[in-house]
Amino acid sequence: xxxxxxxxxxxxxxxxxxxxxxxxxxxxxxxxxxxxxxxxxxxxxxxxxxxxxxxxxxxxxxxxxxxxxxxxxxxxxxxxxxxxxxxxxxxxxxxxxxxxxxxxxxxxxxxxxxxxxxxxxxxxxxxxxxxxxxxxxxxx
Length: 140
What we know:
By secondary structure, this protein is mainly alpha-helical. It has helices at 3-14, 16-32, 40-51, 58-86, 98-112, 119-139.
């Protein structure tokens, strides 16, 4: 590995914690300020980045370590609010729909079973899928 490659890898890995911290702040803010619909964009972006890509190669495993924990954080901290928004047709243009919610839940379940991913990432994904099921049963 070239020194420049190592520096780029360290820079990439070093972004995971700040991204998770920013996500945690935004999810708590969104959960407490129900009128912050504009923040929904960040939740959907994070969920899309975290679950829509396949995780089958070493580079994709590194992506999972970066993007799955923030996606899970949105579900754990603001999932009920996101689910409620998904039930309203007015948010479909933002990507928040019950169909999208079901897709995210399915993908978290698949990620939790993905061979090659770190156990911690798989555990995070399982917790999100489980929490999504809990939210559905509480609201229905």
